[in-house]
Amino acid sequence: MSYSGWLIYNAGLISKKFTEMNRWYEQAGQSINMEVTSIKNTEVYAFIKENQLFVDGQKNNPDFVLFLDKDIRLADQFERLGIPVFNSKETIDICDNKITMYQILAQHNLPIPNTIFAPMIFPGNVEADAAFLDFIEKELSYPMIVKEAYGSFGAQVYLVKNRKELEEKNRDLLHIPHLYQTLIESSVGRDIRIHIVGDKVVASMMRSSIEDFRANVTNGGKMEAVDPPESFKKLAIQASLATGADFSGVDLLFGKNGEPIICEVNSNAHIKNIFDCTRVDVTKDILQYIKVQLTKNS
Ligand SMILES: Nc1ncnc2c1ncn2[C@@H]1O[C@H](COP(=O)(O)OP(=O)(O)O)[C@@H](O)[C@H]1O
Ligand SMILES: [Mg+2]
């Protein structure tokens, strides 16, 4: 049976990098007899009329949705209509917020750096809480990592070296969800990105930067194809499955004895860097996986 799906992407992401990625998915679909149509999230209207849920993309509803966006309300609408969504609304929601993501990983007893979540403070209160900063200092040592809950490309990840910087960061982020975290010193500027589809590793690369504590390619991280140790592969699979991801890009840090520690699980991992580095086209694995899931459930 042939399936037709919608690839949903965000209307704000129309750079060449993103449109090129959509073409890859469309082509990968063609090669396995699946029709993939790229649609912006603003071109599909989610609504309720006479007490019934609808999505209207001016076309028949698809057999599946490949959700490359973070518009979880739209993903939710598809799911409530019984249309299979990859990754699920739940997974996208978990991975989008680093606080929820770490909570889920810890609940699965998976290794993550020690992490403290900032309390939510309504805008009425502008005072930093010295007792909370004391608690952070008691639990974590300098230099430490501070991360906003929502962020990517390393842009919302900071290094804090002393009390003064901690106070400043805390004040800057007072009304923004964020967290404080142990810096894994043995991994500064270095991590491993592992792409998972289902419960399998499909591609891996090491990223290392000499200029920055963040290994993101956007921060000057250099990519190198690697075959990671089994312990890294196993943990990446466990982390991906813990978030319920159908496919993901897991970032792992190097612990001081070379053991893997989870940095994050990306539900919307980019596929171009990993292709440039390893020549593995992850889109094929993802669509093949979706096909198997649809066939299983039909
Ligand atoms: N606790 C940590 N210890 C050491 N390095 C870290 C830590 N957390 C993040 N990093 C570095 O910062 C980079 C960006 O952090 P990450 O949590 O993956 O945020 P983003 O979603 O912006 O990529 C990571 O790839 C890693 O190199
Ligand atoms: Mg990352």
Summarize the structure in words:
- With 298 residues, the protein is α+β, with helices and mostly antiparallel strands.
- The protein has three domains: 84 residues, Dehydroquinase, class II (Rossmann fold, 3-Layer(aba) Sandwich), CATH 3.40.50; 122 residues, ATP-grasp fold, B domain (D-amino Acid Aminotransferase, Chain A, domain 1), CATH 3.30.470; 69 residues, ATP-grasp fold, A domain (Dna Ligase, domain 1), CATH 3.30.1490.
- Helix content is 33%, strand content 28%.
- The chain is built from nine helices and 15 strands.
- The protein has a five-stranded antiparallel sheet, with helices on both faces. It has a four-stranded parallel sheet with strand order 2-1-5-6.
- α1 packs across α9, α2 runs antiparallel to α3 and α3 packs across α4.
- The longest helix is centred in the N-terminal third of the chain and has 16 residues.
- The N and C termini lie close together (10 Å).
- The model has no long low-confidence stretch (mean pLDDT 94).
- Bound molecules: adenosine-5'-diphosphate and magnesium ion (MG).
- The site of magnesium ion (MG) has 2 residues, from loops.
